[in-house]
Amino acid sequence: MVSPLVAVLLIFLVLPIVLIVIVSFWRATEFSIIPAFEFDNYAFLFGSPVTYTVFFNTFKYALITWACTLVIGFTVAYYLAFHIRTLTWQIALFLLCTIPFWTSNIIRMISWIPFLGRNGIANSTLMSWGVIDEPIEWLLFSDFAVILAFVHLYTLFMVVPIFNTMMRIDKALIEAARDAGANGAQILWNVIIPLTKPGIMIGTIFVVTLVMGDFITVRFMSGSQSANVGRLISNDIALLQYPSASATAIVLLLTVLITIGILLRFVDIRKEL
Amino acid sequence: MEPRPRSFYILSAFFALFILFLYGPTLTIGILSFQGEGGGLTFPMRGVSLYWFYDLFEQQAVGDIWGSFRRSFVLGLMVMVVTVVVSVMGGLAFRRKFPGSNILFYLIITSLVIPSILISLGVGLLFSQSGLDVHWSTSGFGAQLTWTLPFGLLIMFAVFNRFDKSYEEAARDLGSTPWQTLRHVVLPIIAPSLIGVALFGFTLSYDEFARTLLTSGSYNTLPLEIYGMTTNVTSPVLYALGTLTTVFSLIIIGAFLFVALIANKRRARQDSDAGKGHL
Known about the structure:
- The complex is a heterodimer.
- Chain A is mainly α.
- Chain A has a single domain (50-272), classed as MetI-like (MetI-like fold).
- Chain A is built from 15 helices and 2 strands.
- In chain A, strands 1-2 form a two-stranded antiparallel ribbon.
- In chain A, strand 1 and strand 2 form a beta hairpin.
- In chain A, helix 3 packs across helix 9 and helix 13 (229-238) runs antiparallel to helix 14 (242-264).
- Chain A is globular.
- Chain B is an all-alpha fold.
- Chain B has one domain: MetI-like (MetI-like fold).
- Chain B has helices at residues 6-32, 51-58, 65-93, 101-113, 116-129, 136-161, 166-173, 178-207, 222-232, 237-270.
- In chain B, helix 1 packs across helix 10 (237-270), helix 3 (65-93) packs antiparallel against helix 8 and helix 5 (116-129) crosses helix 6 (136-161).
- Chain B is globular, with a radius of gyration of 23 Å.
- Classes of the chains: A mainly alpha, B mainly alpha.
- At the A-B interface, helix 1, helix 3, helix 4, helix 5 and helix 6 of A face helix 1, helix 3, helix 4, helix 5 and helix 6 of B.
């Protein structure tokens, strides 16, 4: 029963990773790659100050995006789960939140241009209100735009798992807390948030890995002015420097897997589905 | 019904803003794609016209938009079918522990969390080193499966976690073979979820960019074509294309949701037992 699954994962997941590990020890000339066993790629990677800046950037994006998506995602899920009273409406509004997920990410990034551009909606609105005299330059093609796009694309990955765990909270527990004299904030902090933790963890895993592995959003929304690890890899690939791309990719993979390993200590995914 | 607390109205406003945040930009390019002939990438609108849509149908200098759309569509269907079949088989298998089931589970999680550029790079290397040509229907197809299968499987795990096994036991007691049980009991009960898996399979493939980047060869899929356009096209024709493919996505999503709704209605009308143990 599982053999097709195993076959797909072996050929298109395990083998490629193994190959990346192997190639990361190879040597590259300008137009070809040569089998070798040397640590030059790694030595260069760890010896370059760019690497540390880029890794720092990657974590910065992941952390800020995580915080924003968590706050927004939790609030939306809380609203849907506890303030909407009929299941039909819950499903309808939930679908309304999920539909953009099934449309193209690239189009959704492009769609920020008319809003954030120098003569875009945001600038012209602010100018007509008299808040600013000159267009703000850092709206598009900046770290701000990158994080905005990440939040726009990935908040959904927080909403869905948090909503899922919230829907399984026994309403009697909340009634009991209220009967025992807890106010709204206390119920939220002492009952709902602890019971929602598994959902928060799953959402965190999604958001953190998507942001850490990204290269296209950063490139597009920063106008090629900022870099994260993914961009470092894709730049090497564009220059046909596969060995050095591979070495960076392996370090990125280990970073992501260690992060996930730590997060998985707090949640048993299979139980929470 | 008890009166709504004040927090309800505050949160409603927050939710409305969130929806605006989600849909606003897409609607903006939807409007701007009807920009007049002399119009630019942002407001104001210089007249209203279908100029940029015509442009899309005529000018093919930038690439092969319709060819890439056809490829993306076919690839989406291929990925969808394989995702549904393999996910159901995997979901059934994972109901029991089997040798290696833990490792396989962690492989599925790895497949989900691995940065997509690694798949692109690794599959690209695998094909070039073994002397094969990368092509969207082979390497691109496999690379996309590493993204759609984990979603399909996670949905199936969730479905089977809630599955009431007494239906199968009842079927067995009545003398049905394992295949009959699967065909007439299990599959009808999980059918609505399969529509969900299919929706994920198709749309995730249709929109996938990073995993196809190095694995699609010389024939681009639609997202790659659009990405190529962003670097050298600076007219609203980009918005026109964006609007068209988003409308296409919405039609597909609508069709899937409609089928799911019909399936649920029909089951409710027939008042069959099937699926009652589902929730």
